[in-house]
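Incident log, support desk, overnight shift.

02:14 A customer reports that sequence design results differ from what the structure should imply. Their input is reproduced verbatim below. On-call engineer (initials T.W.) acknowledged and began investigating.
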């Protein structure tokens, strides 16, 4: 099985989470879905890669929501043996001075177009490990800081040793977030000169060679997304991979900052949208931060009715999504509207099956779904309930929401509770549905089945955001704060609408601006000028989806990042 993947040099793609498919719960949110879309596009485009991640066998979690809106979490275990083959190699890493054996699984990601990419799922659940170490690859983003450091040893050091043991020849190592930065440290150890070859005082490490092999994508400006470990812990848990003097130079004098380690050992560094690259340059002065704006995988994020439409009118769109720019002139208004109503009906059916609530196809519907956390402000739409009700006095409004809060993000959980209180307060005037268990399937149903996709992050925290791109593939325009990809994607009144201006820190007037736009622009257009509305749906397809897709993203990584 592995033979067909090791005959040509590949790019190793490291990520703590990868959304391989809906049934495999090894992802928590945007980063994992992006990693999955990266590999799906690489498979379609036949770019030779190999992905490395943890098996996360306990799954992220299954979300239940009580009557009061309280989230509870259950494990969502999965069995790699059902979909993947055991690897023949086992490698060792050192954790707290003892040996931890790392084995794993080969999952073959298959493109709907026939391409494949190998994915290595690292697994320490081996008989030769202690009971505690056997759990190291179970919980995605679970446990304490020490557990996280151990996981990052398995991912970075274990992962690169595993690739070597399996016989992969690697052109580049692509680190996504600092989680896997220990791999660069492992390469530094691997590419060092013996003492007898050194002049007095000369460093044994071939930093230049490692930098040429490594590239690094930072995915968030949110502080908590950048791991830092105290050196006391690093000494105990990791030990000396390279000497501590060198480590402190590369990773920070006070704490081991994984982002700094990755920045210093990568020749190419990028952010995931233009605005995010600018923000990252301010966060990390002295580094050259490029930009490769994110995208979503065309086939995966297009609902069946729109797939059919594009297949018929824009044959080849799955390989060359640029063809979607022709949607404006090549697809009739009726065909776009019919496909939309079909997608909306799929969402309505799902909502009825899962909650018993009967949504109405003719009723204007706002969608909002993403990780439930404070900076994404899921409550902004409800910050003035009277205004919201006033807007809907003549025509009714439906709102469908979904999203998981990280088990330890209490503020995020309270936001879900708050949404449930708003639901009560709104009574019958506005129908609000919260769908529990946000996953890839729900994401597609929602992004395709609403009339407007709403996005209200606190600037400049949303590095890119991708769910609005999924909406665009389905002709659903976005109403969004100008942050992340929307700074590039928004053409006012053509691809959707902006909330506020693009000053990176102006957030105060967003609620007022959002209500104004809903009342004065969106509402009249939807209810009184259907053909102008459909023109905007087509604008989202032809101007956003044709560009903000992972094929364009991967062609850029292939020609600009993976070229050393
Ligand atoms: C696309 C997606 C996300 C990311 O959405 P954002 O808009 O970037 O926050 C998170 N979770 C799931 C399940 C998704 O499909």
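02:41 Re-run completed on a clean worker. Output:
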């Amino acid at each position: 099985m592995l033979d067909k993947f090791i005959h040509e040099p590949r790019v190793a793609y490291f990520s703590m989470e990868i959304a391989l498919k809906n049934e495999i719960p090894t992802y928590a949110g945007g980063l994992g879905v992006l990693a999955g879309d990266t590999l799906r596009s690489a498979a379609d485009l036949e770019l030779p890669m190999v992905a490395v991640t943890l098996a996360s066998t306990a799954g992220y979690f299954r979300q239940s929501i009580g009557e009061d809106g309280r989230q509870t979490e259950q494990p969502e275990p999965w069995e790699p043996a059902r979909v993947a083959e055991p690897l023949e190699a086992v490698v060792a890493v050192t954790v707290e001075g003892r040996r931890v054996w790392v084995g794993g699984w080969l999952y073959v990601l298959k493109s709907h177009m026939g391409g494949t990419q190998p994915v290595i799922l690292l697994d320490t659940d081996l008989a030769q490990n202690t009971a505690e170490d056997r759990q190291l690859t179970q919980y995605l983003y679970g446990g304490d800081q020490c557990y996280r450091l151990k996981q990052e040893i398995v991912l970075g050091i274990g992962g690169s040793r595993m690739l070597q043991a399996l016989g992969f020849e690697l052109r580049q190592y692509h680190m996504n977030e600092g989680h896997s930065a220990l791999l660069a440290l492992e390469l530094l150890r691997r590419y060092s000169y013996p003492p007898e070859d050194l002049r007095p005082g000369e460093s044994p490490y071939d930093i230049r060679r490692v930098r040429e092999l490594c590239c690094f994508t930072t995915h968030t400006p949110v502080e908590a997304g950048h791991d830092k470990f105290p050196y006391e812990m690093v000494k105990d848990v990791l030990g000396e991979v390279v000497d501590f003097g060198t480590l402190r130079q590369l990773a920070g004098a006070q704490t081991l900052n994984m982002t700094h380690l990755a920045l210093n050992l990568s020749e190419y560094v990028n952010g995931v949208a233009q605005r995010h690259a600018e923000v990252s340059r301010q966060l990390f002065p002295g580094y050259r931060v490029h930009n490769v704006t994110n995208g979503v995988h065309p086939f995966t994020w297009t609902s069946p009715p729109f797939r059919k439409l594009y297949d018929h009118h824009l044959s080849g769109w799955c390989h060359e999504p640029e063809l979607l720019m022709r949607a404006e002139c090549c697809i009739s208004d009726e065909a776009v509207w019919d496909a939309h109503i079909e997608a909306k009906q799929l969402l309505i059916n799902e909502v009825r099956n899962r909650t018993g609530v009967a949504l109405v196809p003719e009723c204007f519907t706002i969608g909002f779904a993403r990780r439930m956390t404070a900076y994404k402000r899921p409550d902004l739409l409800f910050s003035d309930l009277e205004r919201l009700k006033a807007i809907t006095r003549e025509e009714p409004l439906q709102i469908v929401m979904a999203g998981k809060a990280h088990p330890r993000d209490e503020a995020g959980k309270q936001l879900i509770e708050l949404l449930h209180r708003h639901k009560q307060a709104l009574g019958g005037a506005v129908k609000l549905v919260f769908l529990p268990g946000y996953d890839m399937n729900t994401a597609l149903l929602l992004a395709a089945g609403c009339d407007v996709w709403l996005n209200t992050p606190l600037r400049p925290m949303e590095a890119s955001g991708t769910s609005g791109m999924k909406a665009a593939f389905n002709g659903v325009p976005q109403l969004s704060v100008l942050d992340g990809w929307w700074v590039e994607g928004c053409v006012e009144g053509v691809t959707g609408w902006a909330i506020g201006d693009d000053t990176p820190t102006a957030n105060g007037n967003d609620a007022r601006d959002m209500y104004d736009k809903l009342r004065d622009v969106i509402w009249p257009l939807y209810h009184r000028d259907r053909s102008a509305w459909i023109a905007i749906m087509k604008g989202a397809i032809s101007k956003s989806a044709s560009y903000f897709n992972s094929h364009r993203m991967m062609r850029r990584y292939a020609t600009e990042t993976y070229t050393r």
